[in-house]
Amino acid sequence: MLYSIDNLSFVNFVSQCFSEPEALKMINEDDEQLVSVKKMIKTKINHQNIVFLDFGAGRGRILKGLLSDNGIFPKLKYHALEPQKECHSELTKLGVTRLYSDYIELPDNTFDFILLSNVLHEIPIISWENSLNKIISSLKDTGSLMIVEPRTLFKGERIDDSGFMVLSEEEIQILFNLPKNLRPFYFEDYKEKITAVMIQKPDLKGVDEESIRNALIKLQENSVKNAEKLMLNQDEAANKYAYGRKMAFFAMQSINAQICLNKIDN
Ligand SMILES: C[S@@+](CC[C@H](N)C(=O)[O-])C[C@H]1O[C@@H](n2cnc3c(N)ncnc32)[C@H](O)[C@@H]1O
To answer: What ligand 1 atom has the least distance to the C-alpha of 33?
Structure first.
């Protein structure tokens, strides 16, 4: 029986974990992810014809946000990869130069930037090694990979036959076998809301089964730690619905990581 609002949000989130995710259409100018991506691109674009790949572009949410910035969009040759074909006409209308449906179509040594915005957690674990390594080889030697993720999901999502895995800095560093700590590029105010990192191609040595396993183990540890923190630091006046949702997110993420670890080991 449901007897409190935080129980309701917990159950809601878990039940959503049986449904496929949806790509959002709209974006606000002050969206934390968009503001961070724009800030980062601006510091890096010093010439015309920057070849930019929006990997998992969805319905062009980030592209719409960049289009309205005259300092950025005219300098980009905007390529997009989106497996859902029904999004392609929308992306073409928005001005995408070239469209791909699958990572295997990506040309090597081509992109100055590849952006994965809200995408990494949707790529099925079984494809991580091949798709992430293909992304690396399609970057120019001077290129950079940008990964943007929310800290927690607002809705549960089913990904393939397991579930979402929302990595933050520490797990991304392990996944990509990176030599040094990742420096986030969000504004300090967004620290609690998003993960936003940029990795230069020379640091990207590749993803392998061992690094995937280690990243999942760290993700599981961190999900449990975050659930413990949530239990210990409850503020009586705080929004109980948000607590229930966050607890469901950490609980499901820990289970999802274990399911994926089992998959890798079998
Ligand atoms: C949450 S949406 C994000 C869309 C957009 N990047 C944004 O930030 O609004 C995730 C997108 O990733 C795409 N996606 C899912 N699995 C993928 C995969 N294996 N390779 C490439 N894209 C994928 C989905 O089709 C979806 O459009």
So the answer is: 8
Q: Cβ–Cβ contacts within 10 Å for residue 224, how many?
A: 15
Which residues have a Cβ under 8 Å from the Cβ of 251 and sit 6 or more positions away? 14, 223, 227
pTM of the model: 0.93
Task: For residue 66, give the nearest of 41, 91, 49 by alpha carbon.
Answer: 41
Domain ranges in the chain are: 23-206
For residue 136, give the nearest of 211, 205, 191 by alpha carbon: 205
- Give yes or no for residue 59 CB within 6 A of ligand 1: no
Residue range 23-206 in CATH 3.40.50.150:
yes
Q: How far is the CA of 1 from the centre of ligand 1 (A)?
A: 36
**C-alpha span between 116 and 196 (Å, rounded):** 10
Instruction: Dump pLDDT digits (tens) for 83-131.
Output: 999 999 999 999 999 999 999 999 999 999 999 999 999 999 999 999 9
Task: Please report the atom of ligand 1 found closest to the CA of residue 148.
Answer: 8
